[in-house]
What does this fold into?
Amino acid sequence: MNPLTDILSLLLPRSCPACGRALKDWEECLCLVCLGKLPVTSFHTEPDNQMAEMFWGRVNLTQAIAWFYFRKGSAYQDMLHKLKYNDRPDIGFLLGRQYGYELSRSDGFIRPDVLIPVPLNPRKQRKRGFNQSEAIAKGLSAGLSIPLNSHTLTRPLATSTQTRKSRYDRYLNVSGKFKVTDPALLENRHILLVDDVITTGATLEACAEELLSVPGVSVSVAALAWARL
It folds into this structure.
């Protein structure tokens, strides 16, 4: 054991962002119990899963998947809140990497050529300090050994919060707000769009529409969690 590590753990004990239990030395930022109890969806084994159906008739996606179900009031909601608002990109990276490991072992997962996180408006990203979707995408990139592109899809225009908006209003709020800065980098590639939580899918739909305007591009979407409406 490292004496310095022992002292730091006493002064600044690490805790699981889901259950609050003190983490063991071998646990990263989420305890193994909470990691093992994630309410997983297995959407990557079901091409016509419930979340994919949500996009039918709206945007042409190759695949739509999420790792686990978002349940309001659950410990995992607290975990995702900490990721997004408490400056915890390590949570996103760990969960993304573990999801990547799972997807890499699945015959049902359609491997993309590149991962692209849903971008934040630069002002919001400066205020928050990081992009939670990019943290997740970095983990997925590590778990899947697939390159990450965080700069070609941009969000130059600010939008109001999506909270309490209907699905249609959410789409109007984000439609046309995303831009591809260098289309030649993406031509004829299969892109996996990465987000944290999917609710109505309006933001991913708007991103996918912009990406699909590039010649030869196909788009899939992946998120950590899906919030069934």
Observations:
- The two ends are 48 Å apart (CA to CA).
- The longest strand covers residues 190-198.
- The chain has nine helices and six strands.
- Residues 60 and 219 are 8 Å apart (CA to CA).
